[in-house]
């Protein structure tokens, strides 16, 4: 009796190793059979779409209406909102003789652009009121940034992410150039300037002009 109980314990013990199949084909076939019973996804199936009863606009029609709504929105703003800005209008004051620096920049309305941070500085050399020796030194230090045709120094910068920073940077560069130009010492007077000839402005020959028509008597 005791031997039978021991045998039963060995057979039904939870720690006994589970039996393994010699082949995995049975599990694979079982998975295939389960997959065959799945229903296909009919969400994007054309055959199962609802019937179009011509009771709504197409996608292109909705886009067209949206464009019309946007245009009307800005037309209403032009008619009712823009006249209110006249309160902030200021009269134009031309620059004085002491304001010799000109800054140029670009602005794209409604969108951002990397070129918006760029700043360009223009200044006429004659407005700096330098002597001939100082002018010679300044043009040597400026190099190709001096334009002979307009007698201007043109600097540009997009080094910093903000436009005001680039304007300040260009202003500081010009101040340093003028400071180095006015320093007492070697003025590089023996170094010649390699400047090209300014472009000549072509004028229409007077001899080619049509003769004036005689006034009708």
Automatic annotation (TrEMBL):
<dbReference type="InterPro" id="IPR039848">
    <property type="entry name" value="Ribosomal_mS35_mt"/>
</dbReference>
<dbReference type="GO" id="GO:0003735">
    <property type="term" value="F:structural constituent of ribosome"/>
</dbReference>
<protein>
    <recommendedName>
        <fullName>Small ribosomal subunit protein mS35 mitochondrial conserved domain-containing protein</fullName>
    </recommendedName>
</protein>
<dbReference type="Pfam" id="PF10213">
    <property type="entry name" value="MRP-S28"/>
</dbReference>
<dbReference type="GO" id="GO:0032543">
    <property type="term" value="P:mitochondrial translation"/>
</dbReference>
<feature type="domain" description="Small ribosomal subunit protein mS35 mitochondrial conserved">
    <location>
        <begin position="91"/>
        <end position="208"/>
    </location>
</feature>
<dbReference type="GO" id="GO:0005763">
    <property type="term" value="C:mitochondrial small ribosomal subunit"/>
</dbReference>
<dbReference type="InterPro" id="IPR019349">
    <property type="entry name" value="Ribosomal_mS35_mit"/>
</dbReference>
């Amino acid at each position: 009796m005791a031997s039978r109980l021991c045998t039963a314990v060995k057979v039904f013990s939870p720690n006994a190793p589970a039996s393994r199949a010699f082949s995995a084909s049975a599990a694979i076939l079982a998975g295939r059979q389960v997959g065959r019973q799945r229903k296909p996804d009919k969400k994007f199936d054309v055959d199962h779409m609802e019937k179009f009863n011509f009771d709504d606009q197409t996608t292109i029609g909705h886009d067209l209406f949206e464009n019309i709504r946007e245009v009307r929105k800005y037309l209403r703003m032009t008619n009712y909102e823009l006249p209110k800005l006249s309160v902030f209008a200021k009269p134009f004051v031309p620059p004085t003789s002491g304001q010799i620096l000109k800054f140029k920049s670009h602005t794209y309305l409604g969108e951002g652009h990397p070129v918006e941070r760029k700043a360009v500085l223009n200044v006429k050399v004659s407005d700096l009121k330098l002597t001939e020796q100082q002018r010679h030194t300044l043009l040597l230090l400026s190099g190709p940034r001096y334009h002979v045709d307009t007698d201007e120094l043109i600097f540009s910068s997009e080094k910093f992410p903000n436009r005001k920073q680039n304007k300040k940077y260009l202003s500081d560069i010009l101040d340093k150039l003028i400071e180095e130009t006015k320093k007492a010492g070697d003025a590089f007077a023996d170094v010649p300037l390699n400047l090209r000839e300014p472009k000549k402005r072509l004028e229409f020959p007077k001899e080619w002009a049509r003769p004036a028509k005689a006034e009708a008597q």
